[in-house]
Design goal:
Elements lengths: L1 H24 L6 H30 L8 H25 L7 H7 L11 H15 L2 H12 L11 H9 L4 H7 L3 H9 L7 H12 L4 H5 L2 H22 L7 H10 L6 H17 L9 H21 L7 H11 L3
Helix pairs in contact: 2-3, 5-10, 5-14, 9-16, 10-12, 13-14, 13-15
């Protein structure tokens, strides 16, 4: 009888312990209060980081022009953007009554916040959304082309649609694209200037390389979209010349360089790198994430090929921005 009692008791203890362990493995959902605390802490850290960036920029301005590095110039460009988008946000926040609308910007248009206020997880969301948009460029161009041109030969060359099909079916898209310069870059300039595209297509191109949000649709004119895309090409050409040895770029520098050019390859890994860098920036840490060497090599090769195409394209005047924008998704091997 005692043995039977002990057996039942031990069974009860084991079952109770099992329930305790099982319940401890169940993920606990954060409360509303904890979420609010996390958001407030994030924006506090982001604000401090923005101020620290301001101090760093003041130091860069004191440097001799010859000693300013590419990273310094990118930091200055990013800070100028953060200030441009930050001032309207702060101004709106301080207006009586209307100030309550300021948090809506963070909720509905976080891309228009200073970069230091963007949450790490949002970096991944933005990247994937822009990559999806970039993947639709060629389909959108095909649709536009059918409404503008027929399949007859233009300027004595095969139509652009056949050229695109040739690139997409090739085992070496880079070889086909680089060999098509200057003929097809000139053809794009003559037949497909940015001003000829529909607003919908311009918005797709703009989001792919300049990472705009839905607000661009309502606040930017077609002329503004075209001008910003032309400026993107000009600034990127300058950055191409400053990169130097691609093999010496850190994973974050590599990924951010691809993202800046509208190049999306191994998107999940790109997102992981951007998320980790934002966490390091906010928390002042230096955590390093291991990335498969093959993925790193793919990124390096893609960046090298794109810069090489841009370099060759820049030898011809005028540079065909529209050609560059449309070969980027063709160059990426999915």
């Amino acid at each position: 009888m005692n043995n039977l009692y002990l057996l039942n008791y031990s069974h009860h203890v084991i079952y109770s312990n099992f329930r305790l362990i099982s319940s401890s493995l169940t993920p606990v959902k954060p409360t509303v209060i904890s979420r609010i605390r996390y958001v407030l802490k994030h924006y506090w850290l982001g604000s401090k980081l923005l101020y620290n960036n301001y101090r760093a920029i003041q130091g860069i301005k004191k440097k001799d022009e010859n000693s300013v590095t590419r990273i310094d110039k990118l930091s200055q460009e990013q800070f100028r953007y953060d200030i441009r988008v930050g001032i309207p946000f702060v101004t709106l926040f301080n207006i009586p009554i209307l100030g309550y609308l300021a948090p809506l910007i963070a909720l509905f248009a976080p891309k228009y916040l200073p970069s230091t206020l963007i949450m790490p997880t949002q970096q991944i969301t933005f990247l994937k959304d822009d990559a999806k948009t970039s993947s639709s460029i060629i389909d959108s161009f095909m649709k536009f082309n059918k409404t503008q041109y027929n399949d007859e030969t233009i300027y004595g060359m095969i139509p652009v649609i056949q050229f695109i099909n040739q690139v997409t079916t090739s085992d070496d898209p880079y070889k086909i694209i680089i060999s098509s310069i200057p003929e097809y870059s000139i053809l794009f300039s003559k037949c497909y200037p940015l001003s000829s595209f529909s607003r919908e297509h311009l918005l797709i191109l703009h989001k792919s390389v300049l990472h705009s949000s839905f607000l661009a649709r309502f606040f930017l004119s077609n002329y503004s979209l075209e001008a910003q895309l032309e400026m993107w090409q000009y600034k990127t050409l300058i950055d191409d010349k400053q990169i130097g040895n691609i093999d010496k770029l850190s994973p974050y520098e590599l990924v951010s360089s691809l993202y800046k050019r509208g190049l999306y390859l191994h998107v999940n890994d790109m997102g992981t790198i951007l998320e980790n860098q934002q966490k390091n920036n906010l928390n002042k840490t230096n955590e390093i994430i291991e990335i498969n060497q093959k993925i790193l090599n793919d990124w390096k090769q893609l960046l090298y090929q794109w810069i090489d195409i841009h370099k060759k394209l820049s030898k011809y005047n005028p540079i065909s921005t529209t050609f560059l924008l449309h070969i980027s998704p063709l160059l990426v091997k999915q």
